[in-house]
Amino acid sequence: SSSVRFEMPKKFATVLAGIAVGILRRRPLARLISFLLCWSPVPWLLTVVLTPNFLMAFFRHAYAKEAVTKLLTARHAPRGVANLLRHYHVLGKICEETDTAKCIEPLLGAVGLGQFLKGFLLTADAEMLALFLRNPATGPLIGGLVRRQEPRVCAALVYNGRKKLANSVVALFQQPGMDVWGTLMCTVPGFDAWVGQWLNDPRGASFAREVLLSEGFIDWVEGYLSHEDGKAFVIRLLQQPGVDRFVTWLNRDAAMCRWFAQIAGRDSAIQFVTEMLMEPGLERLMVSLLVRPGNDSALKAMLEHWVRAERSLMKVARAWGDQPRTSESLARVIMSPGFIDRFVIRRLLLQPGLAEVVVEAFLQVGVRGLKDTVLPLAFSTLAAAASLGSANFESEMAPILEELQGMDGLVGWAAWLLV
Fold first, then answer.
1. What are phi and psi of 58, to 5 degrees?
2. DSSP state of 314
């Protein structure tokens, strides 16, 4: 592990930083140093030099931008800088300085820096990078720097080679403590709006899909949703303009439908959905999302996955039934204008093959499952809906009862209860 055993005097650090800047401003020397850093003993030999005082004096230098740009745009820079992560403790310390963001921000507009960042993420050891990012100061710092960049430019940067880059990102996020780092980064004011704009770009959306579908990332999402800051960020993100189109686009993808079915049965996701639906106005947002074309078939596909692929419907129903305030949260959706008439009657119940899936669900759950889990949850939800406003409830129930009269009684009521 890396630790600060020696701190260079500030005056000496300033002089040495000036010399380092002068060397790196010469492109041939910058290329040579980037090549030497690829040799693992060199970063170790720099332990005495790479102290917080030296690094801050270096970044505060008037010509630091030119020097760093020439170093980072050198051919071997991604691998060489990745080797410097052995000094993760020192690098984390300089992130705690109040003017670090001011020193780094001018570098972000440099030509070629984006390609360096991609190469760095593909090259860096995930464990060492996570040790650096585990410093609490890195999350808000990086989040703030990202937020100041143009979302379209960032989307274009990650699009090419998105599969490999997504795998590197997921490997990093699977390291211990990275769910906490994600919540810290997302607390930056305005970061939710930035992510919303990034997802509205087709290239950013494609990269996000690759990340979501990468092996193991669903576990990170589950951990992220267990944090209050993480849940609050997702709720804010869902309210950003255009994010509903992004979610609908994901729902039209068969692989993403299976992904949503898997995450929907996990405790942290169930708790998140329950708490989200209790937020004033968000139940209407959920209904507006459901009535968008394609989301009805996605919901049916999710049910099919639980019934036919995983045969886990009973487990999912029990998890939802055990969650506090589930009935009240579902009742708020049911009572929202448009849920019964626009979504259930005009879309969901008209899905081809829904009756067959419901029958299979009944057979899988069995009489005991209906008695112990499904019916109590359904009746408590209906009671909660009635308590929200009996007059409005009766007017909403009338159309659905008329629709069900023309269906087989068992299948029709099963469809309603599963909704």
1. -65, -50
2. H
Locate 123 and state its tokens. 């090259």
CB burial of residue 134 (10 Å; 0-12, 13-18, 19+): middle
| Residue 40 DSSP one-character state | T
- Give, in order, the Cα–Cα distances in Å from 360 to each of 180, 187, 298, 312, 370: 41, 44, 18, 12, 13
And the tokens for 223? Answer: 């951990």
Contacts of 407 (CB under 8 A, 6+ apart): 355, 415
Angle between helices 138-147 and 178-185 in degrees, nearest 10:
50
**Phi-psi group of 135: left, alpha or beta (phi > 0 → left; psi -120 to 50 → alpha; rest → beta):** beta
pLDDT digits (tens, 9 = 90+) for 357-409: 888 888 888 888 888 888 888 888 888 877 776 545 455 555 554 554 444 44
Give the number of C-alpha atoms closer than 13 A to the C-alpha of residue 254, restricted to the C-beta side: 2
**What is the Cα–Cα distance from 147 to 144, expressed in whole angstroms?**
5
> Shortest CA distance to 46 belongs to which of 83, 93, 96?
83
Residues of the chain with pLDDT under 50: 1-4, 391, 393, 401, 404-419
Question: Which is nearest to 18 in space by CA: 64, 49, 50?
Answer: 64
Distance CA(146)–CA(193), nearest Å, equals 12
How far the first Cα of the chain sits from its last, in Å, is 53
Residue given tokens 């379209």 in the structure block: 152
Beta strands in 294-394 (DSSP E): none
pLDDT tens digits, one per residue of 17-73: 999 999 999 999 999 999 999 998 998 889 889 999 999 999 999 999 999 999 999
Query: What are φ and ψ of residue 390, in 5° steps?
Result: -65, -40
